[in-house]
Amino acid sequence: MNQLIDVGIIGGGPAGMSAALALGRARKSVVVIDEGRPRNRVTRESHGFLTRDGITPSEFRRIAREQISAYSSVHFVEDTAVTITGHDGNFLISTAQGTTYQSKKLLFAVGMKDLPLPVNGLAEVYGKSAFVCPYCDGWELRDQPLVLIANGEKALHLAKMLSGWTHQYTICTNGPDQFTEEQRMELLQHRVPVFDSPIERIVSVDGMVQRVNLVDGNSISCTGIFFAPKLVAGSDLPKALGCQVSEAGMVIVDSFGKTSVPGVYSAGDAATTQYQVIAAAALGSVAGMSINNELLVEEWNRQS
């Protein structure tokens, strides 16, 4: 595509699509480049999005694209952005399929990616009976016996959160615990069992967890699991372009989604630790409107 478009959006999840909707309604030309492998593809249902509670991720994306299709200036392409060069007003996006897009502004809505955890059987239950967010899936497992796979401060944080949905949970640190003495006492006071033996295997049937077997011979029956994921940035492109990122790979932005690089924005899970579909969509909308405002002011000043 040789024509200069207004905005190139990298990532077509809730943040990217929400930004595309705002920009499409603002009559801006947009290309959304998405590889079609969202992080939440393993989950059966998405929760917490008003009017869409319980929808499947694939249906959510289908409806969103269907509604955005009403705005002919927005185009979706299934591809992967591999390099980005240029500067504010003239960015060049090269893709894995050999296409180049030229855009005035950029929005990274690349999300985060899960690194595989060394736990036998976790992949079979992830998204079915093992989850990472109580706000997303705690209701479905309320008052049920759960296993929490995490260690140190993350385990204590999850334990406090889960107490709103059930008091029947056990912590498995999957190896020597990393708790301070004060944290151990806190868990003891709240009668939270802690096992530090490595996990031998998660036993499940059709994705539904039955028990967690430990190397030391203990077996913990449960109907669900929450675990602390290991995440990496969904793309290295923001960092390669010079955007300031945190140690965890999150793109650092202001309240409008602006990064440290002029003309470059980021939204959604790539730019926040609030991993919620509705939060990602909200941040995408804010970034989309901010980009539009920036383009309008620039055009206004050119005509002065």
UniProtKB/TrEMBL annotation:
Concerning InterPro entries, the annotation shows: FAD/NAD-bd_sf, FAD/NAD-binding_dom, Ferredoxin-NADP_redctase_2
UniProt keyword annotation of Signal present: no
* Sequence ranges assigned to domain FAD/NAD(P)-binding in this UniProt record: 6-281
Q: Which cofactor does it need?
A: FAD
Enumerate the Pfam families for this protein. Pyr_redox_2
The UniProt keywords, alphabetically, are: Flavoprotein, Oxidoreductase
Q: Does the keyword Flavoprotein apply?
A: yes
Q: Which Gene3D superfamilies match?
A: FAD/NAD(P)-binding domain (3.50.50.60)
Q: Which Gene Ontology terms cover its molecular function?
A: oxidoreductase activity
Q: How does it assemble?
A: Homodimer.
Protein name, per record: Pyridine nucleotide-disulfide oxidoreductase
